[in-house]
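Supplementary Methods. Inverse-folding protocol.

Structures were first reduced to a discrete structure-token string of length 325. This string, shown here, constituted the complete conditioning input.
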């Protein structure tokens, strides 16, 4: 993929830090009230677009209706978000019902930008849509039956088929959750469902012992697919969401080669610890440049605002390999 970090105001690891990833020092990059109707803007996805970036943003309004909005940026930090939600036309189906939309991911495959999100259809399931220009959008068949969340496409076909990670769930604040992969010849019919990875044993890695879900679109590296994911522990004060990473086999991504035992980022800053849902880091996008060895991770903080963290691609891969479960 072309250098997607070129306009980002990169920051080096802060002096004195040993952490594998570090936060942008002006976080959060998108305020909860960035558009007139919003209560919160978080769990959002960005991609390189034209001479800058485009994105699909989860904006909950002040009635706390969840919907997704297009946005544009020159530098990946300062965003202009549309004030109206995305209005989808029929894509490969006329059945484009949606009670709500949230937690989008975006990736370019072949000739267009594909979007997945959690789509309300008799409960949460995986919605799919596409756009060529972030102006007109088309909605396709839902990928799966309810209940499912965290549908994340791979950025290219694998063995001739589209591939998607997902996390079968329930209709509420699911107290379980493992990551599966499914394949499709046409983005409409999905099958060949395989388990990729399950929660970790409490005594080995408790931050990811209650549920896990895929985050950004996986990145192909020399070691395989780098997958950031969220991991959850159920505490006496509720769920706590942290960020880990795994490396999946390039040709058989249901095979996990490495998986981080320690988290890469966990709630620690005020904007992560307080908000509508405290103690949540929820990554939905990553920009990277292999040549420059740089990565920018976009994550929702406390279900309220959108933030960015940086890391060196090679160091993240080494960290996952050297600290694998
Ligand atoms: C999940 C989803 C996410 C949210 C998270 C933490 O179930 O609803 O959108 O960020 O819970 O509240």
């Amino acid at each position: 993929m072309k250098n997607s970090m070129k306009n980002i105001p990169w920051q080096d690891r802060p002096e004195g830090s040993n952490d594998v990833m570090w936060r942008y020092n002006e976080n959060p990059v998108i305020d909860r009230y960035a558009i007139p109707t919003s209560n919160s803007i978080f769990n959002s996805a960005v991609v390189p677009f034209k001479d800058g970036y485009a994105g699909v943003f989860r904006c909950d309004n002040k009635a706390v209706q969840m919907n997704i909005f297009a946005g544009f940026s020159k530098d990946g930090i300062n965003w202009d978000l549309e004030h109206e939600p995305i209005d989808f036309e029929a894509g490969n189906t006329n059945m484009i019902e949606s009670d709500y939309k949230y937690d989008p991911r975006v990736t370019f495959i072949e000739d267009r930008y594909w979007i997945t999100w959690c789509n309300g259809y008799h409960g949460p399931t995986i919605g799919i849509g596409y756009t060529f220009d972030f102006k007109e959008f088309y909605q396709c068949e839902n990928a799966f039956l309810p209940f499912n969340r965290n549908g994340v496409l791979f950025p290219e076909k694998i063995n001739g088929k589209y591939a998607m990670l997902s996390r079968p769930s329930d209709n509420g604040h699911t107290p379980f959750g493992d990551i599966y992969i499914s394949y499709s010849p046409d983005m409409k019919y999905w099958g060949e469902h395989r388990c990729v990875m399950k929660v970790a044993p409490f005594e080995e890695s408790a931050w990811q012992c209650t549920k896990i879900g895929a985050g950004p679109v996986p990145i192909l590296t020399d070691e395989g697919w780098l997958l950031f994911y969220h991991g959850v522990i159920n505490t006496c004060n509720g769920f706590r969401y942290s960020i880990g990473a795994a490396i999946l086999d390039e040709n058989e991504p249901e095979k996990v080669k490495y998986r981080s035992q320690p988290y890469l980022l966990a709630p620690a800053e005020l904007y992560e610890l307080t908000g509508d849902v405290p103690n949540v880091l929820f990554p939905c996008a990553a920009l990277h440049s292999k040549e420059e060895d740089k990565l920018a991770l976009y994550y929702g903080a406390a279900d309220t605002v959108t933030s960015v963290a940086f890391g060196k691609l090679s160091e993240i891969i080494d960290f996952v390999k050297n600290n694998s479960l």
